[in-house]
Amino acid sequence: MQARRRLFMERAMRIKSLDNSPVNDHQLHVLRMVYDQITMYPPESWMVLIAIVIRRAFKQVKNWFSNERQKNKEGKNVRTETKEGDKVRLRPLALQCPQWSDDFFEEVVMIYDYKVLMDLRANDSSN
After folding, report:
1. Which of 10, 56, 78, 82 would bridge 86 by S-S if both were Cys, CB 3.0 to 4.6 A apart?
2. pLDDT digits over 81-106, tens only?
3. Nearest-CA neighbor of 26 among 94, 125, 115?
4. 69 near 39, Cβ under 8 Å?
């Protein structure tokens, strides 16, 4: 598992984007879903996965969550542990899943990312 995480971190660190560039609609939808429905405090391994999926620099994903927590401090969180043993604070809705893991989180984010892309394309073609 550590080798896989290291590989993903290397991949995420190779993603280049302008430091002050705002997130686009697609990226914002995915970031907001994770923040609002899963966790305000994703572990580093999950932020790496988000960075890869939305093609945004890891540092920018990390900063987005930090900035968002400063702006919106409300929201209930429950402390739990992932399958890998990471301590994480999940939203109550996310606790409906019996066991979170890096693999499960990656699947959730990738499925939602695909849905967002299809919705945005459908909206673009109807305009």
Report:
1. 82
2. 999 999 999 999 999 988 899 999 99
3. 115
4. no
